[in-house]
Amino acid sequence: MIDLVLQPEELGQIEKKLHQAGLKLTPQRRATVKTLVRLHESHLSAEELFAKVKEAEPEIGLATVYRTLEVLAELKIVNRVSFEDGITRYDLRTEDSGHFHHHLLCQICGAVEEIHEDLLVDVERKVKEKYGFEVADHRLTFLGVCAKCRAKRQRHL
User: Fold this and answer.
1) Tell me, what's the pLDDT at 1?
2) At residue 39, what are phi and psi to the nearest 5 degrees?
3) What is the pTM of this model?
């Protein structure tokens, strides 16, 4: 068994959202949430998350992890994210801004880095002014080459 460290306030907020929806934080849901929080920058697929959760909760089944992810997505605790590989991944929604955070995706090594600042405030304002459309949320993924891959490429030239 691995020790999953989770800030009590994060778990408390998630537990509160589940309770408000009439759901309990079962041991399986707790193990899934703890793993999501612990590996929040990993952008895991359901299968990858299942493998990690199983280390802490050996009796858990893949279907339970899928159902938990669906519940968490419906409650806007996690977001479904698809990158270039077409695999649905799950990203813990953070409270650091009014919007979903952005991603930098390296097209060589597949590394994903998160940007936790809203880069599209001016774009949203222009969309509202020009089209009368009020943006509720947005998702932005920058495709390119990370610093490590650029450095490797430079060494090989």
Assistant:
1) 31
2) -110, 35
3) 0.66
d(CA 51, CA 73) in angstroms, rounded, equals: 19
- Count of alpha carbons within 13 angstroms of residue 138, beta-carbon side: 17
The encoded tokens of residue 134 equal 């009020």
- Give the closest residue to 14 by CA, choosing from 40, 35, 33: 33
* Cα separation, 62 vs 66, whole angstroms: 6
Give the position of tokens 């969309």: 127
**Strand-pair category, 112-115 with 102-106:** antiparallel
Residue 141 phi, psi (nearest 5): -125, 120
Conformation bin of residue 128: beta by default, left when phi > 0, alpha when psi is -120 to 50:
alpha
At 123, is the secondary structure helix, strand, or coil? helix
Give the model confidence (pLDDT) of 29-57 as tens digits. 989 988 988 887 788 899 999 999 999 89
| Number of helices followed by number of strands (H, E) in the chain | 6, 6
pLDDT at 144: 92
Give me 9's structure tokens.
């306030």
